[in-house]
Write a structure and sequence with these properties.
The protein folds into two domains: about 170 residues, Alpha-Beta Complex (Quinone Oxidoreductase, Chain A, domain 1), CATH 3.90.180; about 140 residues, NAD(P)-binding Rossmann-like Domain (Rossmann fold). Helix content is about 30%, strand content about 25%. It has ten helices and 19 strands. The strands form five sheets. Strands 3, 6, 7, 10, 11, 18 and 19 form a seven-stranded mixed sheet that branches. The two termini are about 20 Å apart.
Length: about 350
């Protein structure tokens, strides 16, 4: 088979490799159909690491995927060859204290697709996954919608961990795929007004089309002043979705006393800071978000039930052999890219 591997900083190659084999009787072999390019993939592509997770080359990334079951192990019961599936990239042990507490996303022995030191990613024609990471798709759902369920699940989980959305006024700082994945479930759950900021005008425009009440570009205006003028009582919650220090600072300016700051984005820096004076006087609650927890099926259900339309997020499509071009486009944020999809021949 062919797979795409990182071979250095901003270097990706298509190589030939042995097709993986089912080893455990609870595993399945998946023929990949699509893979979405995620911001964390870009961290590995551009920086070679995310915090303590450092790439050892060559390494295949990719964790937003969907495909078709090619073969199954002897004890697999939930899927069969020919089934179309969304892939849950997390592979917890289901036995540690975190898993027993209902927190498989912080499993002590977690393996995650495309995470250095844990598991190679799904930018390959075939991958092997545990049965528990495969969610069978309805005929009505496309492979691209299935792949988007992974980042959408992060947004669903972020909203679930924040505050009741009914009649809430919230902010989303960063209008990339994760910011939009927060926007959609927040709207579906009754948020009154959603204020969205991004330094790319086309992303602001997309957020407006997808239901944002207000959008602004912090490179061109004082968004804190504008939001506070439009919402004198300030915001109930703010979702920081771009991993930028200035966005964290802006969040504290627009949150009301007793408001909640949701940290969803992944900063490039090892440390971030807060104005403790502002946080103390406003009694701001800070909640970090670690991927998603029990939300992939919920995200798929919301897509299938047409609670909203996720497809406007997909702005670019590339054949598998041009995966490097997709990564360069997303890394450089060119041509209005939001979500780039990598497609495998004959699987659409």
């Amino acid at each position: 088979m062919k797979k795409a591997v990182l071979t250095g900083i901003r270097r990706m190659e298509i190589v030939h490799a042995e097709t993986p084999r089912i080893i455990r009787d609870t595993e399945v072999l998946i023929k990949m159909a699509v893979v979405g390019v995620c911001g964390s993939d870009i961290h590995y592509y551009v920086d070679g690491k995310i915090g303590s997770q450092v790439v050892t080359y060559p390494f295949a990334v990719g964790h937003e995927g969907a495909g078709v079951i090619e073969a199954v192990g002897a004890k697999v019961t939930s899927v069969k060859p020919g089934d179309r599936v969304a892939i849950e990239p997390a592979m917890p042990c289901f036995a540690c204290d975190q898993c027993r507490a209902g927190r498989p996303h912080t499993c002590r022995k977690l393996r995650f697709l495309g995470c250095p030191g844990q598991a190679e990613g799904c930018l390959a024609e075939y991958i092997v996954m545990p049965e528990t990471s495969c969610i069978r798709l309805k005929d009505s759902m496309s492979f691209e919608e299935a792949a988007i369920s992974e980042p959408l699940a992060i947004g669903v989980y972020s909203v679930r961990q924040s505050i009741p959305m009914k009649n809430a006024a919230i902010g989303i700082l960063g209008s990339g795929p994760i910011g939009l994945s927060v926007l959609l479930p927040a709207l579906a759950q009754g948020a009154r007004r959603i204020y969205v900021a991004d330094k790319i005008d086309s992303r602001c425009a997309l957020a407006a089309r997808m239901g944002a009440y207000w959008t602004g570009n912090p490179a061109k205006q004082d968004i804190a002043a504008a939001i506070n003028a439009a919402e004198p009582g300030q915001l109930d919650a703010v979702f920081e979705c771009c991993g930028q220090q200035e966005a964290l600072d802006q969040a504290l300016e627009i949150l009301k006393p007793g408001g909640k700051l949701m940290i969803v984005g992944i900063p490039r820096e090892a440390r971030v800071s807060f104005s403790i004076d502002t946080m103390r006087h406003k009694e701001i609650c800070v909640q970090n978000v670690r991927r998603q927890n029990h939300c992939v099926q919920l995200a798929l259900d919301m897509i299938d039930n047409r609670a909203f339309n996720v497809m406007p997020m997909v702005t670019h499509r590339f054949p598998f052999d041009k995966a490097g071009d997709a990564f360069n486009l997303v890394a450089d944020l060119k041509d209005g890219v939001v979500k780039a999809m990598i497609q495998f021949d004959g699987m659409q």
